[in-house]
Write a structure and sequence with these properties.
Two copies of one chain form a homodimer. By secondary structure, the first copy, chain A, is an alpha/beta fold. Chain A has 13 helices and 14 strands. Chain A folds into three domains: 55 residues, 434 Repressor (Amino-terminal Domain); 91 residues, Response regulator (Rossmann fold, 3-Layer(aba) Sandwich), CATH 3.40.50; 137 residues, Rossmann fold (3-Layer(aba) Sandwich), CATH 3.40.50.2300. In chain A, 46% of the residues lie in helices and 16% in strands. Chain A binds a DNA duplex (30 and 30 nucleotides) through helix 2 and helix 4.
DNA sequence: AATCAATGCTCCATCGATTGAGCATCGATG
DNA sequence: CATCGATGCTCAATCGATGGAGCATTGATT
């Protein structure tokens, strides 16, 4: 198919200068808004603006940024785009960056440590002023790379030790969620028994804190959590499903209630529950650390914790705006979500 | 909190040249891999590489790109990050771009026509070589902007008339989906009756084609679709919910089955169904144009159509790789998904 | 000894936008 | 009429990386 051929050469300020019968510096100042300060007449400004429009001129950012001191580019790396939490982080980040006249660049690193590092280096090459490492497997490595390249970094979702970190209050969120699940057990099953904990990585900070909250809530409810019920099997749905299947196949007891450590793991859990038929028509009493609108609709009164993404990004940009962090780790309380309660 | 202060100045090839006792051009050629061609000794190359490592040197892309002829940057604009379809488009796009040594930049325009144009201009400023307009409200406008700036563009998901377009085969997908829903009606309700069509915008090409498939399938099943059952109320969940509520409140008949035109609209539909209680314990027979793992788990045997994102992006990159499109509109057949069938 | 190719570099113009410094011109003022 | 401030612009250096052209040096060949 023949589409209009690309123009051979891009219009530059020199082309516009020639067309307007003026100098490149006049054109530049008109187009970047400094023309009043530089005492360019309104008449010339208008002429240049019109010509730029006509010629479809777009400033060459490479040239412009090379000359300027600040790039106003902010970068973010994010593990995946496959769930609502990271999706809203990216969307909110872009919106808030634009509001401030910053140019956001985001890239997804698929939970691959090597790709995280490679992506960080690449962004530094583009002169990002800030790099937000979201859910990074090795945040301190990213911080070091940024520091040595003269850029600043922040950790989001998972904390690091060498840059300010903005994370959810995982302990409090998990504590509350566990209490709610246990209460639902009491109401629906007539008794409380230790819950199963499924999903996440035992090595990551969030899972650790959530486990701590999970255990504390058991203790405070007079229960002692069963260590064999704790399955931090990773985040992928298949892993959660395989973990449950393995337990089930081994003939071990299955719990009355479950704490699932992400919507992604919940996919696997619910799939296993339906497929195995272990719980019959009913679902086990469940709760999920993270939110998805369809989970609300799944029925079975699944409790959720929704991380407060707008508040987290307000904290991020407050650091970017001011250049300083009030404390090394900022914990944002997440929001309790009950079935249908968001309507 | 005091974190390590940023380095005042970034290391440049001139700094490395001085440290290595050589010239900037030697350093440059070592670092960009042309040193053999330029007959730099392996000894010097190794020394420079080591120094670059030690100093945390990162090439200044702005300077490098300014000098080079091609930027190897590819841009994409995407409406939202709030569903699996666009999420996987972005993730696949980034992965495939990286495989080719291209640098992907993606931005989300929140279905805002002004933001689409602004984002496109911004990307052109960064010298993107290709701009992929995904689900754009006015694709031809984007194409024109790109053409006049000497960049090439492609349309994805929604077609335009002035650049190659890669879209799902919406007619075939909707036809098949409608048939499946009607078959399920026959089986579960013992009879077929016209379905309701909920979601999407009447003005957009995809909704139009899906409606055409929807109607054709009715016709071929010996039914005439009820025009008052067609509710292209937009994509947001609240709009779908409001549309159903309005119909219900008006006392009009509700259908036995529904064709829902996106997972996002389905959120609203399922929410209304559960809230209104109109369908009692059962769900209406349903189908959804788009896929989400939780919908599979919702029960009620909701049929889905999953758009073939990998095939779509393979088509995109085949055009980028070769520079030419085999035809103006490439239609990719979507994939039928049955409840639990993906396990 | 002169010639020549190969080796290993360096020099410098260039990409396009920015910006401090500076040069005309003009009308007003003493 | 000389001076001055305001007005409206232009000049040229600069940002950092790149790559064509070219310059020494070395060793081999006639």
């Amino acid at each position: 198919m023949q589409f209009p051929p690309r123009q051979t050469k891009k219009t530059t300020i020199y082309d516009l200068a020639e067309l307007a019968g003026t100098s490149a510096s006049a054109v530049s100042s008109v187009l970047n808004g400094t023309w009043k300060k530089r005492r360019i007449s309104a008449k010339l400004a208008e002429k240049v603006t019109r010509l730029a429009q006509e010629q479809g001129y777009a400033v060459n950012m490479q040239a412009s940024l090379l000359r300027r001191e600040s790039s106003r580019i902010v970068g973010m790396i994010v593990p995946k785009y496959d769930n609502r939490y990271f999706g809203s982080i990216v969307e909110t980040f872009e919106t808030m960056a634009r509001e401030r006249g910053l140019f956001p660049i985001v890239t997804c690193t698929r939970r691959d440590p090597e790709l995280e590092v490679e992506a960080a280096r690449e962004m530094l090459g583009y002169q990002v002023e800030w790099l937000i490492a979201t859910g990074a497997t090795d945040p301190d490595r990213i911080t070091d790379i940024c520091t040595s390249a003269g850029a600043r970094s922040l950790n989001l979702d998972l904390p690091g030790s060498r840059a300010p970190s903005i994370i959810s209050d995982n302990f409090a969120g998990a504590y509350g969620l566990t209490r709610r699940i246990l209460d639902n057990c009491q109401q629906r099953l007539g008794q409380m028994s230790p819950l199963m904990f499924v999903g996440g990585r035992a090595s990551d900070h969030n899972t650790g804190e959530r486990l701590r909250g999970f255990k504390a809530a058991h203790q405070d409810a007079g229960l002692s959590p069963d260590p064999s019920f704790i399955l931090p099997c990773g985040y992928a749905p298949e892993k959660a499903e395989a973990a449950l299947e393995a337990r089930w196949a081994s003939g071990s007891a299955m719990p009355g209630g479950m704490f699932v450590n992400s919507t992604i793991s919940l996919e696997g859990v619910v799939h296993w529950i339906k497929r195995s038929g272990h719980y019959g028509q009913d679902m086990p009493v469940m709760g999920c650390f993270d939110w998805d609108p369809f989970v609300t609709l799944l029925g079975g009164g699944i409790e959720m914790v929704r991380q407060d993404v707008p508040a987290m990004l307000r904290a991020v940009f407050s650091i970017i705006d001011s250049g300083e962090a009030p404390e090394p780790i900022i914990k944002i309380p997440p929001i309790d979500m009950h079935e249908m309660a968001e309507a």
